[in-house]
Request: fold
Amino acid sequence: MDENEPLMVNCGPHGQRVSAVVCQHMLRAEGAPTGFIENSSDPNNLQAWCHRCEEKFQQERGLTEAFAAFNDMAIVCDLCYGALKVRHAIAVN
Reply:
């Protein structure tokens, strides 16, 4: 596999798709949006976390073990990532 090729994941609803990483808070959220902060501009490296994770990241000053435990990342497909982005993005005025 070429290092520039995206990693793939088998998503139940969507089949074989490009993989993405999100925090568990977005997956478990009910009700209000959590916020959606993308952490990479590389289209083959889709990553995002919520506003609470961003606050923890800033508090920890980086990707510490405490941050990783708080974030509890999950692998999803690119289509699920897009749906989470629409659901959790908060417009800034």
Observations:
- The beta strands are 8-11, 15-22, 37-38, 46-49, 74-77.
- The mean pLDDT is 92.
